[in-house]
Amino acid sequence: MRSADSKDMQFIRTPVVRRLILMTLNGRANLPAVPLGRFATLLLCSAGAMLFLALMATLFVLREEQTLLFRAHSGLLPKTLQTLGTALLLCACGGAMLASRFKNMVTSDRNLRAYTSLTLVGVVVCGLAFVVVTAREWTLMFDRATVVSRAPADVFQPDVTRKARPAARTTRTPEPVSRPAESLYVTDAAIEQAGPDYVLEGVTAPLPDDVEFDVYRISRPEIAGWSDAVSGRMRVRATDVVTLERHGPHKNVVYASYFALSATTLLLTVGLTLTTIVLLARHLLRKRVYETAANVAILWGFVATAWVFCRMTL
Fold this sequence. Notes:
The chain is an alpha+beta fold. The chain is about 60% helix and about 15% strand. It has nine helices and six strands; from the N terminus they run H-H-H-H-H-H-E-E-E-E-H-E-E-H-H.
């Protein structure tokens, strides 16, 4: 018994066990203290990482099941504006990090306050610019539509430089659909004017008899590969329109995934922009903000990194 008790006492006296006991009893064990703000920042990053990982895992599964659909529609997303938005998020992250380091870089108190104020203003501008760019992306997406009409579109300004490509199927095993006896014409284009007559810019073609058509899955490259396809600016009468399906989140899973990831990033960006505005107001009131600016910079970096990986999955 004594040997067993002595072994237990030796185990309890080990440094790791002693620290655990002290932390349980006293809440501390002479460990370096973690600031509450930094702890909350890391906690938010962990929660956000789990959210984005869940979204990306779902997206990977959807891409594996519907590879052809993603291949046909992902190229129609506004890549240029997405790249601009990524650059704005990275600039906001760098600006917040720079604002937190000015206290170690500038010796003059007047220059310190001026540089910090200008940098925080730049972070706010980048955040607001990202909101504007995202709103522009959504506007461009909702202004595009797939139109099915009974009469051919009146192409008044053809695009002679665009050549037809081979049709790319967007489904693995298309199911037959019922189709009226009359001829139908399919147009995928950007809506320039809506009214009695739709003014569109895109591609239009008569619907072939041997194609299993689904308005939610059809893509512009596939229409361009049909026979008698014409590109350019055109006019379609509203009375001839059978179906008009805009490129919103309800069109198919590709656009739904894009809008879900974009909306999540937008909400986080709006929250961080408001936080930076509060930080700027506190700085103008001559309150210390450098530690908080470092935590905000970590959050900006997390959002920018998550957005880059989300773009890669799309």
